[in-house]
Queue: 2 jobs
Job 1
Amino acid sequence: MKRFSSLLLLLLILAGFAALSIPALACTAVYVGSEVSADGTILMAKSNDYQDVWGNHVTIVERVENVPGRTMPVDNEATVFAPLPATTYRYTATPWMDSAVAVNGLGKDATICVNEYGVSMIMSITSFSNAKALAADPLIPSGFTEFTAVDLVVCQSKTAREAVEVLCSLLDTYGSSEVNIALIADRTEAWYVEMYNGHQYAAVKLPADKVCAFGNEFSLEYLSDYEDAIVSPQLETLVKDFAVRDKDGRLNLLATYAGQEIVTDYSHMRTWIGHQLLAPTAYAAGYDKTAIYPLCFAPEKKVALTDVMEIMRNRFDGTEYNPDDTGRTDMRVIGTETALSVHIAQIYPDLPAECCCVTWESTGPAIYGVFVPVSNAVTRISEPYARNQSAAVGRVFDTELYPYYRFKELTTLCTEKPFLRSVRDYWRDAEKVMTESMAAILSSLTADKTEAARILTDYCCQAQEAAFADAGVLLNDVRLYNSRNSNSMKNGRNPETHEVLDELKAIPPLPVTLDVSKYALPVTRAMIAAELYRAAGEPQTAGKAAFGDVPADAPYAKAVAWAAENGIVNGYGNGSYGPDDCVTREQLAAILYRYAETRLTELLSESHAANDLVKVSAYAKNAVSWAIPNGILTVDANRNVRPTDAASKSEVAEAIRAVLKLAE
């Protein structure tokens, strides 16, 4: 991420001031191969970091079929345009809002895009080349830029390799105005691309059994270490006068195009901590500015999606460099309060391309924000996350309507305040539920593309809307808590005499009373039938379910057929079952009551003084009266049974356990 012109950046590098003069150029990236991830997915992450307030949103760019003559800008000033193919592909993106573009005067900067073929691209992790490399092939002021690159490549690429070839072709044709790194992947492979100067680049296919973690610096040494590579025609000949080679004559790209002379603590420390987090034994030693941390290395254990989320929040936790514990200000952490956005692409190799990727979006800083899912199959984005603040609005910091501003302020208020870390803990709990829910959806997705897209869209929007609402509650609580505890007198006082004590006063953690169950995958009527079918040992059924909305090839079809044959489910009485409808608490009671009837000779029930029993539907009254005293349904603190509320995943699990115990 950068803001300076190519000429200014070159002058800064030549003067040795680049790392000092750029206020917040601190993008960090992580790659995890499918063979070393906890669930077999490919993971790519990147923070988009710059010290300003440029809001972003999430959008869907639709496929365009056979419309020749279109172009996209190559440079920031939109003076150079590249032609597009007649057909371009559908993709999700996270560009700046129009209000941000009006202020910064740059391109949209999609940052991360994932298309309908499952091709994902992240750019840019700004890097630096040495003076000799830049002089040999100067940057092109009107050349390719990170702010236009991702859309331009992803909209016309069906595979990761094709995307790399498109990117390299654009560099050959137009040159680059910046020094950058990109990550590109699909279901079968992932690529890493270093762009050194005006026209020189090297792209390598990343191994599936390795990980990468790096700050704003190059790491690629020898091309022969990789299975496949795509390089610029003059990559080696251009640097013949200052090339650095090993004893076997291999060109060392890192030493030649970058070198120790431009290594900065600012970037190198983030590379070090990334290695230490993923391979703590191999990189147990403290930070060493002269150490060469390899691009690819083996992790010590399988890496989970949530591990990557925490890496993107890391502030040198547990080390002597942690600013929150030490007060140090002389280094740049990974998890900053200045991040404009943070993204993780999770690609499932075994899923169809049209639904194989989930982008986990933190709109704003991630350290006190939350990653929410955006599948590449979604047909819409939730209203809050899709909102685009108009250019006419300019710098209006609107926390009421836009997630970016809400999470930005929340993080600004919480950073470096230990008593507000409970906010971060809450988001971790929410992310655990969301990641488990998305995995559950994708593991049982229907083959019907339209239906699969609907299910994924509904859940992604549910999670986004819940996160936006929770952030509003937390922001209000944090504002109030900060105001209540603001006092220039930092020392404690004797509560009886008010005498000032020597020790600093302790502020207790902010109590967070929000419930993460809202992020859980809704339990559907199909799911409850499937759970009971499994509990019964999946017996043979006489035929298909007698409901018009239960396809014969649906994964839950046998379960619904079995439940209907045994009188456990009745449907809605109009020939439909509503398999994707959320199961309500009274429906849950009725279904489990009928299930218990097939297992028990007598069902005991008794009256219960729930305040809202009058709201229970007639068909479910006996079932609810049986379910409450038997611990299958519970009443809340207000003694309400809430019969028409959707049953949560945990409530369904507890209810089924209770019924099975009764039937023992």
Job 2
Amino acid sequence: MILHISIDELELKDSDSWKLNHLYNVGIDYESNKIEAICNFDDEEIVLFDFSNYDMKLSNRWVDYKISVGEAGVTLELISSRKL
């Protein structure tokens, strides 16, 4: 499943949108249920998206993911490891 989160839905302030091109360690924190990253310039940890705002709870039990971040927002590919 592919989930695209547009820049308008991200937790960033308008003045911080430039940080999207300067992030590393972007990933899902399953405990807080957020997509988090670290900015290259100041090593500040920032929250990009909070799934709780959409009543979604992610689990890493049966799902892996690939994540891509850019000027258009965040694209998340969820990959099921459950055998049907």
